[in-house]
Amino acid sequence: MKTPLSLMPVVLLLSLSIGHAEEKHAAHLHGLGTVEIAIEGKTVKGAFEIPMESLLGHEYLPRTAAEKKAMADLQSAVAKASYFVSFPAAAECKEKSITAESAMFAGKKSEHSDLDVDFEFECAKPQALTSIEFPLFAKHPRLGSLKVDMVGPKGQKSLTLKAKDPVLRW
Ligand SMILES: [Zn+2]
């Protein structure tokens, strides 16, 4: 059954507002991340779920000094939303909030670990917001695809972005 288009924004906004209260342990596909984006007026909200394997090359807790450093570097890098998304300069978007969590950052081991990211931007000139770039791809070659679900001024859109063209346009 197809969900009526008119209901989609409500459904997506609802799932975004719920966020990632619980760490998920469901299996994921390595190399495939997901992102939900909702644009309403000046506000851009988003939630990523990315396999830690795509970011670190492993899902076990770091063992060597190099692995420990790589995870610490990642944890500090993901504290800025610009690590994940980039907006057209003319839209004058400013980061309002970001949280980036993983069970691995908390020293917890499980079969599959994700990085769960929630972010919010406010854009002073939302009319100039016609695309979003994902610089994350260039930083993490193991991330091959990003499944995007978006609700914006032109309605709902679902597609899969690849590293060779990491730009969402509408
Ligand atoms: Zn995994």
Can you put this structure into words, describing what you see?
The protein has 170 residues and is an alpha+beta fold. It has one domain. Helices cover 19% and strands 35% of the residues. The chain is built from 4 helices and 8 strands, in the order αββααβββαβββ. It has a 6-stranded mixed sheet. Strand 6 and strand 7 form a beta hairpin. It is globular, with a radius of gyration of 16 Å. About 6% of the residues have low confidence. The site of zinc ion has 6 residues, from loops.
In this entry the ligands are:
zinc ion
- Low-pLDDT regions: 16-25
Helix amount: 10-25%
β-strand number: 8
Key terms:
globular, 8 strands, 170 residues, binds zinc ion
